[in-house]
């Protein structure tokens, strides 16, 4: 079994932190949604609310729930040291067994525990509480409540690897060594999301997110910025908003969902765009979409399209598909939803956005969608925008596009820079070489380890490739070799960029011969592609560049893109790649995109698409 995957990365799966309030735990459908998330491969950390469970437990043991009246008139559960054992018991006997049973009913393995067990989460005590007793203000010093100060991230990561779902509930261990400390479950979820670098935080409630009018369940607020939520929140919703604000200090995309479901109600945004025409770009970059975790971004963009009257859906492969028109002349604009791993909080510095994916290649995809929105498509034409999945690893989305969305011309969403057009790419060959041999003592004569064999075969491959195609580029994406007990196992993933004068098929055969007896598995083999400058599509872009006053360049890149994937079967279809941003920033921690660059690319793209449609109309007219 491979330990390297397709791209030899330590990133495994998306992490969802999901806080489910005690009222929502009574709704079976929320656990169905959790099961579907797990079915998509996500790791899931649930945080369970306990108000209903505590009430039920206290009633069962005939003990009154103690409360405090605060200075502002609100009430809070009173938790002196003698109550904490009963609070823990309520979670362990009522709430957590309910969660465990619901998970088991869906075939999911679950680890359920209070956060104080094993010091999975530690909190420091809050200052004394100001309360009211009758008409007299009092200071309550024995209330066991606290603020999260430490998370056992390594232990929780191991639990998340071992179980389908990990569920924690308050209270937390106390940093002062005393009885456990009650912590707000929503805030606990936010702190866990930040500590574990979660991809997504969902705070499930009984309403459709945050409401503009607490008395009107239809007044949901779909989007809200940092610092804006509390003015719309009342009662317990204030704690959810507070938790969401805490999570905005991390990198997860944050939403309050409901009613009693994971369906997004209100999204919280950390990086307000400096202008309205940059809002979609900003929000697309904020939603984490590392390969195989594209669904949240796809659903957000589908909603954006439908709100503007654009036909949009998510297809069987998970691709976003948006289109206008149904005519026979078809233009495809193919971008991709996914990014390579690593995120950081998105920010705007003046007119420049920084964040994973802004260049590669959400800037292109958003420009395509906004171009589609503004476009008037004549009856005899169709313009389709696809945001493909897994471009960075398998191109599974693009292969689905190749087999289902035939087009007469294609624009690929990759950064060329606003003043350049990519008309060709090298081919791509990605292979895994692997060996498994019986273990031999390394002191024996002639014994070689799996690591020795990997080093040797990679050296042979590099030498053979240099002789067969000096312009080809070979990179070892990852190498792994271990003693597995009875056998030595080794593997490496190798990426070769193939120039036009070297056949991908010939190169595949050569690698098999040179690597023998080491096993070779072809992960991906796509040919290069070059579109002539005289094609109608390139000419449409040339006219657009001139009209926008841009002195352009034509590029033939040594990298590859989904253009290569389409080229495996699409013959004679003109294809170019165009999008804002500097491709040298792809996959780097300095990925950033300037608003001037983005807007210039938008203008060129819109004009080029219109030029292509107009040119095709003239061609059809002459033929008629």
Automatic annotation (TrEMBL):
Q: Which PROSITE patterns match?
A: ARGE_DAPE_CPG2_1
Q: Per its UniProt record, what Gene3D superfamilies does this chain match?
A: Acetylglutamate kinase-like, Zn peptidases
Lineage runs: Bacteria, Bacillati, Actinomycetota, Actinomycetes, Streptosporangiales
Q: Which UniProt keywords apply?
A: Amino-acid biosynthesis, ATP-binding, Cobalt, Cytoplasm, Hydrolase, Kinase, Lysine biosynthesis, Metal-binding, Nucleotide-binding, Transferase, Zinc
- Out of the domains of life, which is the source? Bacteria
Whose protein is this, by species? Herbidospora galbida
Q: Which InterPro entries match?
A: AceGlu_kinase-like_sf, ArgE/DapE_CS, Asp/Glu/Uridylate_kinase, Glu/AcGlu_kinase, LysK, Peptidase_M20, Peptidase_M20A
Show the NCBIfam families listed in the entry: dapE-lys-deAc (TIGR01902)
Specify the protein name.
M20/M25/M40 family metallo-hydrolase
GO molecular function per UniProt: ATP binding; cobalt ion binding; hydrolase activity, acting on carbon-nitrogen (but not peptide) bonds, in linear amides; kinase activity; zinc ion binding
Q: GO biological process: what's one of them?
A: lysine biosynthetic process
């Amino acid at each position: 079994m491979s330990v390297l995957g397709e791209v030899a990365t330590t990133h495994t799966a998306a992490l969802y932190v999901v806080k489910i309030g005690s009222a929502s735990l009574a709704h079976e459908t929320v656990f169905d949604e959790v099961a579907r998330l797990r079915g998509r491969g996500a790791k899931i950390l649930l945080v369970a609310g306990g108000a209903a469970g505590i009430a039920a437990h206290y009633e069962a043991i005939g003990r009154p729930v103690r409360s405090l009246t605060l200075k502002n008139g609100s009430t809070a559960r009173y938790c002196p040291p003698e109550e904490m054992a009963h609070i823990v018991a309520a979670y362990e006997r009522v709430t957590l067994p309910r969660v465990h049973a619901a998970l088991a009913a869906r075939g999911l393995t679950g680890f359920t525990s209070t956060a104080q067990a094993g010091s999975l989460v530690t909190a420091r005590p809050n200052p004394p509480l100001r309360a009211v007793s009758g008409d007299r203000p009092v200071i309550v010093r024995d209330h066991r409540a606290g603020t999260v100060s430490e998370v056992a991230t390594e232990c929780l990561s191991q639990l998340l690897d071992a179980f389908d779902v990990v569920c924690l509930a308050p209270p937390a261990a106390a940093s002062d060594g005393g009885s456990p400390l009650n912590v707000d479950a929503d805030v606990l979820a936010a702190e866990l999301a930040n500590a574990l670098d979660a991809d997504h935080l969902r705070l499930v409630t009984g309403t459709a997110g945050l409401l503009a009018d607490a008395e009107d369940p239809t007044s949901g607020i779909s989007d809200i910025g940092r610092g804006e939520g509390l003015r719309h929140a009342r009662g317990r919703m204030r704690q959810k908003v507070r938790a969401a604000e805490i999570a905005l200090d991390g990198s997860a995309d944050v939403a309050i969902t409901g009613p009693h479901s994971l369906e997004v109600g209100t999204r919280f945004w950390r990086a307000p765009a400096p202008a309205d025409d940059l809002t979609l770009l900003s929000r697309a970059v904020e939603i984490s979409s590392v390969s195989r975790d594209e669904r949240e971004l796809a659903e957000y963009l589908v909603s954006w399209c439908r709100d503007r009257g654009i036909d949009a859906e998510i297809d069987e492969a998970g691709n976003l598909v948006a289109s206008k028109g149904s005519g026979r002349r078809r233009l495809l604009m193919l971008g991709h939803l996914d990014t390579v791993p690593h995120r950081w909080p998105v920010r705007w510095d003046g007119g420049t956005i920084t964040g994973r994916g802004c260049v590669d290649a959400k800037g292109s995809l958003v420009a395509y969608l906004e171009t589609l929105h503004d476009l008037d498509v004549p009856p005899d034409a169709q313009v389709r925008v696809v945001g493909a999945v897994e471009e960075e690893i398998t191109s599974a989305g693009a292969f689905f596009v190749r087999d289902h969305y035939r087009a007469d011309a294609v624009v690929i969403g990759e950064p060329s820079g606003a003043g350049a057009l990519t008309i060709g790419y090298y081919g791509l060959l990605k292979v895994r070489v692997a060996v498994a041999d019986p273990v031999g003592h390394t002191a024996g004569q002639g014994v070689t380890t799996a690591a020795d064999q990997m080093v040797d075969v990679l050296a042979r491959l590099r030498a053979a490739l240099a002789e067969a195609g000096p312009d080809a580029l070979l990179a070892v994406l990852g190498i792994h070799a271990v003693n597995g007990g009875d056998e030595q196992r080794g593997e490496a993933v190798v990426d070769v960029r193939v120039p036009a004068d070297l056949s991908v098929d010939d190169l595949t055969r050569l690698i098999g011969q040179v690597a023998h007896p080491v096993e070779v598995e072809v992960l991906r083999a796509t040919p290069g592609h070059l579109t002539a400058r005289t094609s109608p599509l390139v000419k449409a872009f040339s006219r657009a560049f001139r009209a926008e006053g841009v002195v352009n360049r034509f590029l033939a890149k040594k990298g590859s893109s989904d253009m290569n994937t389409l080229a495996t079967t699409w013959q004679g279809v003109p294809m170019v790649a165009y999008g804002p941003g500097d491709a040298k920033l792809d996959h780097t921690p300095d990925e950033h995109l300037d608003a001037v660059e983005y807007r210039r690319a938008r203008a060129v793209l819109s004009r080029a698409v219109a030029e292509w449609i107009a040119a095709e109309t003239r061609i059809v007219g002459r033929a008629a």
